[in-house]
Each structure stands twice: as structure tokens, then as C-alpha cells.
């Protein structure tokens, strides 16, 4: 499927595609070609108000819909998503730039969330203790929260929305989604297919746009909860503003993920893992490997092998089969990444592979950067401290595992980390002492599946209940405790 002409997008409110009240539209280019594929409205607070009010009305009926009946719509939805699998993957590559293989994997991660949400009859069950005292029982019932607003980033146009709306809706809430204005197309297909599966009008709505829509949701009296995924400063803002307005908020934020390599690691698999973790999806994953912390005994070997393996990556349009490194999302982002590389050089990090040199004239006019590697990075450098969100990898050399853990723990982020080793004792020390919420052992991107919480720590997460798993169910439900005496 190719997008022929730039489509002017509409909002989806109460089961209808409706024009935004704005006159401001933003161009959405294919990052691999620069070609405009859509124009997205920067909707107004008036549009948000309309969507939220409709969602509130729909909620009144939806929350009373028996849970198994809701669940059956999810089975049909699942079937439709499977039938449209390739189309969805291709659309991800066109709007986001990641390779088709990465996009294909992302579709599955999204579908897994729908599978988890289909289990709503089990997930929504309460608890009873029949005798808390003589003739007195205590029971817990789950209810939806109300209207949920969802705000998503550009880097997973399918998976991240699927962390939110399927489970929220399965739990009986209605939903207003604001997709990333940089990748707004996939959300539309997700909604269309859900409607085809039989979702009632108004339960799932889309309002396209940027900060005005976000603020409209945060400030709206009829929005009860906010799920956010995006960069750290915006997550912090969304969390503090949303909670100030009395809402339940979960805000998943940025990252700087460290992979630790010990001398006893299986080196071929380790190199393959790091290359996939650092340069897959052009480094634009919240679980991407951004830093390799390697013990000195194998550091030279690891750096040389990484350079060699990075040399083999083919840069280009992710729809081409032989390409394994796509573009970054925008020219403005590419500019910031170039600045970060310059800064790294000025700070004294050793640029051992400069991905800017891979950008040759035969490439399409997209936003490309080859795999870039800095060696001899230290914790006083910005190139280490800040999330760059691109195919840029830093190497840090340490004496041993204990030093590697201490170094990793200096980061203000705590999303993901990986340890490459064959030692059980090392795994134990790492698991106990590392201050990060999602760990991998010889697994390059340790993103948990939909039935576990996506549990970032420190500045990678704001809130109490994470996305997915029982945390997600608890976030999208509120409980009533009933204590009764029947004698
Ligand atoms: P972003 O923060 O720029 O945008 C995320 C959302 O917030 C978008 O919908 C955007 O419209 C909105 N937004 C942006 N600026 C805003 C502002 N000033 N006020 C109100 N709303 C605003 O993030 P992005 O660049 O789209 O996505 C990449 C970031 O997301 C990275 O930092 C990445 O680590 C993070 N991310 C985190 C996770 C996680 O699970 N922790 C998952 C995916 C992505």
C-alpha cells in the first residue's frame, strides 16, 4: 500500500470523521523521502470539549455493557487486526521510518495488548472474604474510572496507543486519544477497525493536534484519567498538571538505557544484541541501548567488533527489504542529533564511527544518519547524560561489574538495562543492585509483554501504576469495598 496523495486528517468524534475547528494544519512527511503524506489539524480546546462530552455520554452505556459482551468485540477486533497485519506494518514504516521488519514486530506488540484486554471478564473480577467477622463479609468490586485521555509519542504509532485504549475500554471506560502529530495515521486505522468490530460510537475518539489538545484534556472537568507516553520534560509537565486538576495520571517518560558487557559474555551474540538494541528503529525506542558499559579486559575487542558490525548496516527507506537502518523522524530532530554529536566531540568523547559519513547522495531525500559510536565516554559528558534518541551509541569502560552498576545508577533515568554475561552470580548482583525497572539478561530489548507492567523507574516514569498488566487494570478501574452483615 502506498499513500498516493496527502490526506487532510479529521478528528473522530462520536463515530464520525469531523473537521477540526482549527485553521492550522501541520505537514506530515514520510521521513525516508521527505514527501508529504498527510496534513494533520492542530485541533482546538473546542474540539477536545466536543470529543470529551461525547465520550462522557458513551461512557454511561458502555460501563453498563456486560463485560463478556465487551470482550467479544475485542475478539472480532483481534481478528481484523490480524487480517490487516501487513497493511498496518507498512503504514508504520511510511509514517515513522522504521524498517518493515521493526514495524512488523511492533504490530504484534500492539495485538498482544488487545489479546490481554480480551481477558477483561477475568481481569475485572473482584474479591470476597466471606467471614471477616461472624456473619460479616467483605468484598471488592471493580468499576471503570470514566473518560480517559491518551497522549502518545511518534516512535511507536501502534504499540503505544495499544498500551492504552484497549485495556481502558475493556475495563468499561471511554477514551479520547491524541496521537502524535508526527505519526497520526496509524491511530486512524486502529479506530476504523475497532468500529468495524462493533465498538459503539463515542467510546473511542481521536482529537489530532499538539499541546493545545494536551492542555484541553488535562484541564477538562470531564476527563478522569490521563495516560501519557513521551519525553521526560513533557511527562513531568503532564503529570504535575494532570494531578493538579485532580486526575489520575500515568506518564511514561524518556530514557538512557545502559547495556553492561562482562568479559565472560558470549561475544557474537552480545555484539548482535547491542547492534539490534542500539540501531534498531534508528535508536528511536524508549528501550534502545544508548550506552554500553564494558569491562576493560574486552573493551577494545567489543569496540572493534561493534564498528565492524555497524559498517554492515544498510541505510535507507525501511520499505526496502535489504535496508536495516531507517531515517530519524524529522529534519529538525536530525539537526539536534548532529548538534549532540558535535557536543560529544567537543567534550572529548572519541568519535570512532561517524554515521554522518554514511549519508550518500544516492539515498532518498529523507532524514538519515548512519550508526554513530563514541568511545571513552564519561559521566561528566552531555552525550552520556542526555537522551539523544537516534542511532548514536556511547561506550564507557569500567574495571568490573560493581563499577558498571554504580555507573549505570548515576543516570537520572531508569527505564531499561541489559547485562551480557554467562555468570549466574553476576546476574544476581546486577538484578539486586541496579536501579532500573526493566532488565534484560542476554536479551537486547527487554520490553515486557502486555500482561506485565512496563515498569520504568526514576525520571523514566511519573505516577504509581504503570502501563499494561495488572497495573494497567488497576489504573483503569476504581474499587468499591463492601462490608456486609447478613445474620
Ligand atoms: P514528545 O514528548 O515530544 O511528545 C509526546 C506527546 O506529547 C505528543 O503527543 C506531543 O504532541 C505531546 N507534546 C509534546 N510537547 C508538548 C508540550 N510542550 N505540551 C504538551 N504536549 C506536548 O515525545 P516524542 O518525541 O513524540 O517521543 C519520543 C519520546 O518518548 C522519547 O523521549 C522516548 O524515550 C519517549 N518514550 C517513552 C516510552 C516509555 O515507555 N517510557 C515509550 C515510548 C517513547
TrEMBL record:
Protein name according to UniProt: Malonate-semialdehyde dehydrogenase
Active site: 286
An example Gene Ontology molecular-function term: methylmalonate-semialdehyde dehydrogenase (acylating, NAD) activity
First-level EC class: oxidoreductase
Keyword check for NAD: yes
Catalytic activity entry: 2-methyl-3-oxopropanoate + NAD(+) + CoA + H2O = propanoyl-CoA + hydrogencarbonate + NADH + H(+); 3-oxopropanoate + NAD(+) + CoA + H2O = hydrogencarbonate + acetyl-CoA + NADH + H(+)
Protein encoded by which gene: iolA
Residue ranges annotated for the Aldehyde dehydrogenase domain, each copy included: 17-482
InterPro entries: Ald_DH/histidinol_DH, Ald_DH_C, Ald_DH_CS_CYS, Ald_DH_N, Aldehyde_DH_dom, MeMal-semiAld_DH, MSDH_GmP_bac
Pfam families according to UniProt: Aldedh
Record's function text: Catalyzes the oxidation of malonate semialdehyde (MSA) and methylmalonate semialdehyde (MMSA) into acetyl-CoA and propanoyl-CoA, respectively. Is involved in a myo-inositol catabolic pathway. Bicarbonate, and not CO2, is the end-product of the enzymatic reaction.
Ligand binding (NAD(+)): 154, 178, 181, 387
Family annotation (PANTHER family): MALONATE-SEMIALDEHYDE DEHYDROGENASE
Biological processes, Gene Ontology terms: inositol catabolic process; L-valine catabolic process; thymine catabolic process
Pathway: Polyol metabolism; myo-inositol degradation into acetyl-CoA; acetyl-CoA from myo-inositol: step 7/7
